[in-house]
Amino acid sequence: MSKLRIGIFTDSYKPYTSGVVRSIDTFRHELYKLEQEIFIFAPNYPDCEQERGVFRYASVPAPTNPDYTIAIPFSLKLNKLINNLNLDIIHTHSPFILGRVGLQQAKKLNIPLVFTFHTLYEEYVHYVPFARSITKNVTQRICSYFCNQCNLIITPTKIIGEHIKNQGVKSPVINIPTGIQIDEYASGNKTWLQKNYNIEYDKKILLCVGRLGKEKNIEWLIEAISLVEKNFPNIHLVLVGGGPEKEHLLKKAAELGIKEKISFTGVLPKEKVINCYNSADLFVFTSLTETQGLVIGEAKAAGLPVIAVNAYGVSEMVENNQDGFLTNLSQEEFSNATLLLLQNNNLRMQMSSKAKLNAEKISSRNCAKKLLYYYTDLVQNNRKKAAN
Predict the structure, then answer these.
(1) Residue range 297-317: mean pLDDT, rounded
(2) Greatest distance between any 2 Cα atoms in the chain
(3) What's the Cα-to-Cα distance from 119 to each of 6, 53, 78, 154, 293, rounded to whole Å?
(4) pTM of the full structure
(5) What is the Cα–Cα distance from 128 to 137, expressed in whole angstroms?
(6) Which of 275, 319, 348, 349 has the fewest other C-beta atoms within 10 Å?
(7) Separation CA 118–CA 128 (nearest Å)
(8) CA-to-CA distance for 301 and 324, rounded, in angstroms?
């Protein structure tokens, strides 16, 4: 395949941590290995590292999440730079601020535009302080309109592809999950959590990795784990991630009498998250808004069986009764599935082996090759049209 010059426009990038950021970084890493040129345009953050091929727009802190910054989408310097990069294709990861910049640049340069639909944006309107029902409908329309300006839409799972088609998306839609760097997650410190969070070695550790926001349904998870604890007291829940709900969740844990059995790690660097996966016994996940649930793939690569609520993209990440359990939105059902794996060591070990095996299906290398195939096809077709 010939070398392409690919422009990535995203409203979310390092040092902020999220599934979108991990997705961009994973594909970037693999595309570099495939000898492609990548140029990333993202919001600036205080004291963020200078990286090759990463260009920053001036930004301001988000009013509802001070850890996140919002780009100011105007820069004469960056406009000139983009004009001089000779990009072959633009790939946006948001339908909003810098996604719109990517759309404008693709039209101006007459090159293909790709959009990855990472997020069910309408499920995040609780961060808007007013008119949420109206905001939800408007958000859906904005997303569908943006999708229909693109040459290709990528969804991490098939079910999300069907979902956006039902909302009026007419552009071609394909399914490419964010791949997992299998080897990285398969090895780590197997006693890291016990040593760093003073967890007794005989405790069974339940791990959840994700932002502490309402959309992740963590309060529901804590309530379900309190049911587990009544029947299996020898457990400890570890929540990896930061977010606005932390204080509320601490109060909830105290109300339920299990505060001492929960550790909040805050945001951790990747190598420490890998250690978390490798020193846990089970992965528990209750988000209802995932387009994929990338952390589930990471957990499986580390050999963790998964108990998750059956919703949207998660349904394609867990092979029910094989490498974990998918449950209905029932705390009793969720807690019973968790108890079954805690009490049955043989079943847990069988599911652990199956989880590692199934994680191979979404290796980052294979996913990047698939993405590059579609990039190349779009670019070649665009060049043919321009030549005629």
Answers:
(1) 93
(2) 71
(3) 22, 25, 27, 12, 10
(4) 0.80
(5) 13
(6) 349
(7) 19
(8) 13
pLDDT of 133 = 53
CA atoms within 13 A on the CB side of 60: 7
β partners of residue 262: 237
Cα separation, 246 vs 238, whole angstroms:
13
The Cα–Cα gap between 211 and 29 comes to: 23
Q: What is the pLDDT of residue 123?
A: 53
CA 39 to chain centre: 21
**Residue 63 pLDDT level (bands cut at 50, 70, 90):** confident
How far is Cα 136 from Cα 128, in angstroms, rounded to an integer? 10
What structural domains and CATH numbers belong to the chain? 5-179+363-387 (3.40.50.2000), 182-361 (3.40.50.2000)
CB atoms within 10 A of CB 283: 26
Residue 104 exposed, middle or buried by CB count within 10 Å (0-12, 13-18, 19+): middle
For the CA atoms of the chain, what is the radius of gyration?
21
> What is the rounded CA–CA span in Å between residue 208 and residue 299?
9
- Token pair of 4 as six digits: 């392409």
Q: E strands, 72-227, where? A: 89-92, 113-116, 152-155, 173-175, 204-209
Whether 355 has a pLDDT exceeding 90, the answer reads yes
Q: Burial level of 285, CB count in 10 A (0-12/13-18/19+)?
A: buried
> Which backbone phi and psi does 290 adopt, to 5 degrees?
-80, 135
Query: What's the pLDDT tens digit per position in 22-53?
Result: 899 999 999 999 999 999 999 999 988 889 99
Residue 130's pLDDT band (boundaries 50, 70, 90)?
very low
- Residues 66 and 69: their CA atoms lie apart, in Å, by 7
| Token duo for residue 284 | 């528990």
Angle at 294 between CA 290 and CA 295, to 5 degrees: 105
CA nearest neighbour of 90 among 160, 35, 38: 38
3-state secondary structure of 107: helix
